[in-house]
């Protein structure tokens, strides 16, 4: 969320008590104070662009807001005092976390809204607002980039340090494998996905054609890192299909066009193919941690051409 969006959101409710939004006479929504993490070092002041400096804090420092913001500045609590910093020096983060105690629905409005998504059991979600409605029977949360309402009876409080995302009990192995299969189905339909319990074990087999992926540390089948790894293994399946009777020629060619000269040309080519299938080889997970999937390095135009050919079921020129 940008500083300006935050500002306008607060401006819209400035006529009433900070932190409280009244929808109507009988249905009130209350929200907690916003929570932020600094995106760079800050020196909060008593005024917006003037006033005494109250000290400083480095990047990654967590602060609570007061609910006020204006003119591109946000008011925070800093060592017990109210202070202003530029809104673009802050990133809003979850004010509270909750874990589902059963499968439940994310709705567009409290109680009567339409269903936006179904949350599995044992799934931890954050809430930027911690807004409650209908006598605390509903809580506003963010789930996979969407904001909606979940029944409080299906939630228990979770630590602010808890990682957002699926827990161990969110998916059975079969349900997890099915979700992963759906994520690669466009390119690898009907290729079985098997679940491994060995950390870091990911591979594709040619006879029979199948993919094995570790669930260890990957409870969420829709997380970007496991999606990227699944697409990398799917790329190997597509390589097998184009070269059903042996890999030597493709291996030699892939190594000859591999700028890294690390003997892993086939792997880099699978990475390039995975990107074309929508994999994000680096990124950020829902818990805020960064990840790298695959073997790193950018794809050259020659590698991209080879990847395109293999995705089309053809041998790359020269291979
Ligand atoms: Zn590989």
Description of the structure:
With 319 residues, this protein is α+β, with helices and mostly antiparallel strands. The protein folds into three domains: 3-93, Roll (SH3 type barrels); 96-165, SH3 Domains (SH3 type barrels, Roll), CATH 2.30.30; 173-311, no CATH class. Helix content is 23%, strand content 29%. It has six helices and 21 strands. It has helices at 3-11, 173-184, 224-242, 248-256, 265-276, 301-311; strands at residues 20-22, 28-30, 35-38, 62-70, 73-78, 81-86, 90-93, 96-100, 104-107, 115-119, 123-127, 132-133, 138-143, 146-151, 155-158, 165-166, 193-196, 202-205, 210-214, 282-284, 290-292. The protein has a five-stranded antiparallel sheet with strand order 1-2-12-13-14, with no helix packed on it. Helix 4 packs across helix 5. The longest helix is centred in the C-terminal third of the chain and has 19 residues, at 224-242. It is globular and about 70 Å long. The two termini are 48 Å apart. The structure holds zinc ion. Zinc ion is lined by residues 232, 236, 267, 270.
